[in-house]
Amino acid sequence: MRILQGTGAVSEREPGILTDESGMAGAWCDEACWPSSAAEAAEYVRSCASRSLPLTISGGRTGVVAGALPDGGAVLSTCLMKRIGPVEGATVAVEAGVTLEELWHRLSSDAPGLFFPPDPTETAASLGGMAATDASGSDSLLYGSTRRWVGSADLVLPDGSPVTIVRGDCAFGPGGTCRHPSLGTLALGEIPAHPNQKDAAGYALREGMDLLDLFLGSEGTLGLVTGLVLRLATSPRTIIDAVLFHPDPQGLWPLAGAVRQSGLVLRALEVMDRECLDFMRRDPLPGAVLPPEGASCAVMVRLESSGDAMTDSILGRLDDLATASGIPGGLVWAGFDGAWDSRMRSFRHSLPEMVNREISRLRLSVPGIRKYGSDSAVPPALAGDFHAGIRAIIDGAGLAGVVFGHAGQGHLHANVLPRGEAEMEASERCMQEIARLAVSMGGTVSAEHGLGRLKGGLLGMMHPPGVIASMTRLRRSLDPEGRFARAIRWA
Ligand SMILES: Cc1cc2nc3c(=O)[nH]c(=O)nc-3n(C[C@H](O)[C@H](O)[C@H](O)COP(=O)(O)OP(=O)(O)OC[C@H]3O[C@@H](n4cnc5c(N)ncnc54)[C@H](O)[C@@H]3O)c2cc1C
User: Fold this and answer.
1) In the predicted structure, residue 43 carries a pLDDT above the cut 90
2) 322: which residues sit within 8 A by CB, 6+ positions away?
3) Number of the ligand 1 atom closest to the C-alpha atom of 57
4) Centroid of ligand 1 to alpha carbon of 331 (angstroms)
């Protein structure tokens, strides 16, 4: 087990551990540790407990809300915990530091007929981090979030004791309590009145919930995930990816609505608004797949097919939908082989990559600048109204921003790019207004990224004090000193 002690030693020799994809500056810690097994991790957590040292857990550091960034204390990185067990039936055991890309690679050689459905775009995400954030992504429309695909988790609690929680073994009963041999009795307390379908804000408190689901999505506040048993799905024979580009920006939501109501079984239904396509064309990444001329906005769909006849039928239906929406033939892209999949992945990924590049450029002249990204969702039928409201907020503030995301789940990301220091405060206000708008529409302040250090303050917009008090009580019952993820605070 490697340990670095001293604030200067960590920042000089391992500066990477103080940064993540949120771009938040100012993280620091007193020491950092890289265990290479669950036993070493537990030993280090016990050492922190004996010294009352706060502990932040760091995975792949692809998180965008700074949950993995410490504010003093110790950091434990899972990046050396890389074991992958054999595929048994449709399950596989992994250590927390295995990345999604490494799992895909192993499955492609050992079990090509199976796959792990959650895909949060960033394949450098660790599986421990995905479990801790209950990551989802475009395909969660059909496959749900990571939670659905976790059968059990090996955890180390804040006092350093290891515990394994298996789905189905322990649930919160009708009185809202749950008794576990190692954890004692836990009580749910007040739970949200209208839980959202897709929601990553705070704990997923539900009547009758499985104990495992309390830990999944808890963002490292309740325990360290050291290992997971993942469930795998059968790979479909064919995956069809299509993009319907509308020539008229006003055509975006009628088209998305028509696709959503078409009866097609959609694996993903995504949108990019006009500002996204303009932004992608302005200063393209080298080798980027660009939107075609005449396109104003895009509806992207992914579907599964079991054979040629079904593939033909799906492609025919998509063509009909495009024609009925007034889209000319040149503005429809569709395909279904490996090369097409890479092309589509590159098209979708180039937008966030370009946003990040723009921020990095700006940071050269304004060091504290970061991207302001919203992650709110509303009931899917209201997605078009939500988009209009978001645009009114961004445009009304005179800011530049793109809006894209998971239309099938009413989940839209607004990325606001401040052009200088003067716009940073207005960008933050914009994020607050978008979150408030989502809550007023019955939605959530965070649908997939979690709250981390950047968004904990939004939880109070969404839940009454009693619900937040319940979450805090659960947190304190497992971590009385409040040492785990101390910098993640809710209000
Ligand atoms: C371009 C881009 C696109 C993205 N798209 C999506 C998307 O579509 N959907 C989505 O859900 N997310 C998305 N993300 C966010 C991110 O990829 C996910 O949140 C991912 O699950 C984080 O995993 P990680 O290993 O990088 O975790 P980190 O960033 O290292 O940590 C995230 C949080 O989990 C905690 N944590 C990490 N490992 C553990 C562990 N072993 N035990 C306990 N707690 C732990 C950390 O303390 C922190 O609070 C995107 C990010 C980027 C940069």
Assistant:
1) yes
2) 244, 329, 331, 332
3) 47
4) 34
